Amino acid sequence: MLDTQSPFSKMKSEDEKDAIRLYEMQEMALSDYMSGINAAVSRTTVEIAKRMLKRGEPIEYVAEVTELDEFTVKKLLDEL
User: Fold this and answer.
1) Tally of domains in the chain
2) How far is CA 4 from the centre of its chain?
3) Residue numbers of the domain that contains 52
4) N or C: lower Cβ tally within 10 Å for the chain?
């Protein structure tokens, strides 16, 4: 059986294309926003770990509380 649909019926209208572009731009903006939030959380976690280390908290405890690995906590201690 022959395909009787017009080849143009598969093309998207300009409104559909605009809606897709808008959706993609919103997705990129949300991704950028979440990247910024994650970076801020990481910086805050490191600052908390440094404060704990300055107070003399054990490396294992700092790693447990901040969820940083012990190697990272040891590096932070060396930087102090």
Assistant:
1) 1
2) 47
3) 16-79
4) N
